[in-house]
Amino acid sequence: MRTGWKTVALLGALGGWAGCGDDDGDAPIDAGSDATIEDAGGIDAWMRGDAGTTASWTVTVRDLISGNRLQLAEVCVVDVPQLPCAITDTEGRATLDVPIDLELQLRTTALRYVPTVTTYVSDAEPRSVGVDMPPNSALPLLGGRVEPGKGQLAFVVQNEAGDGLAGISATIDPASGTGPRFTDGSLPDDTLTATTEDGLGLFVNVDPGRVAMSFEGADCEPNEAWPSESGTLEVRVEAGSLMIVTARCATETSDAGVDGGSSDAGAGLDGGV
C-alpha cells in the first residue's frame, strides 16, 4: 500500500499555515452535519460490477490552515455515480471504492470549505491520499475577485524527494484567468515569475474544462495529475472548486545522484508524500 501525506504549500496563496504538520494528535473539526451532500443513490442499488473492478482508497481530509482533520466531509469519485460517496469519521478519514486503471478525480466538500478536486491515475493497488481543504474565508487571499463560474487551479512542483522546486514557470492551454501567482516563504509575491522553494503556483479564475499545463525550467512529469500529449500534465477544471495538481521534476542533482549516490533515491515515494 502506498501511503503518505501530500506536501502542498497552498497556504502561500490561501492563508498562513506554514507546514503540513504531523498526522497524529491534531484535533478533528466537525465539518458540519448540514454540509451539502449529493445523493449518490441507495447503496442497495449499487453493485461493484457497475463501475468495473475497484480498489479501496483511504482519504484523509484536513483543514489547510490549521492542519486539523475534518469530520463529516464528503468525498466522491467525480462522474462515477454508481459508486457511493464516503463521509469522513472523527479522525478525518473515509474509505472509498475507486475504479482501477482510470483517469479520475475526487471531489471533497464540507460546510464552510472550498470544494476541492484532486486528480489521479488509479491502479489496482489500495492507496492512501490526503486532501487539504481551504476554508471559504481564505478565498479573498487568492487576489482579486474570485468568480463563481470559474475554477481555481493550484500546482506544486517537487523534486524526486518530494520537496518544493524553485525556478519553474508554467502555462495552461487553453489560456484563461490570471496567473500563475507564486509564493516566497509561503507568502504571495506578484513580482515573481517562477516558483521559489515553495514550489507553488496558482492560476485564478480559470475557465471550466480540461486544460493542459506545461512547465519550463525542469523536466517534469505528472504525479497527482493526468498525462498529457500537448503539455506536461492535464486536469479537468471544475467551476466553483479548487483543483490541486502535483508534478515531479528531474533536476541535475537528482539525475546525477547526491555525492555520487544512486539517482533513484526518491524511488518508492508516494505522490501523496
Describe this structure in words.
By secondary structure, this protein is mainly β. The protein is 3% helix and 39% strand. It is built from 2 helices and 19 strands. The chain has helices at residues 11-14, 252-256, and strands at 29-30, 54-63, 70-71, 74-77, 86-87, 93-99, 103-109, 116-121, 127-133, 151-158, 169-173, 178-184, 187-188, 200-206, 209-216, 219-224, 226-227, 233-237, 242-250. The strands form 4 sheets. Strands 4, 5, 7, 8, 10, 12, 13, 14, 16 and 19 form a 10-stranded mixed sheet that branches. β7 and β8 (116-121) form a beta hairpin. The longest helix is centred in the last third of the chain and has 5 residues, at 252-256. The radius of gyration is 18 Å and the shape is globular. The two termini are 13 Å apart. The relative contact order is 0.19.
Structure at a glance:
The chain is mainly beta. 3% of the residues lie in helices and 39% in strands. The chain is globular, with a radius of gyration of 18 Å.
Keywords:
273 residues; mainly beta; 10-stranded mixed β-sheet; 4-stranded antiparallel β-sheet; 2 helices; globular
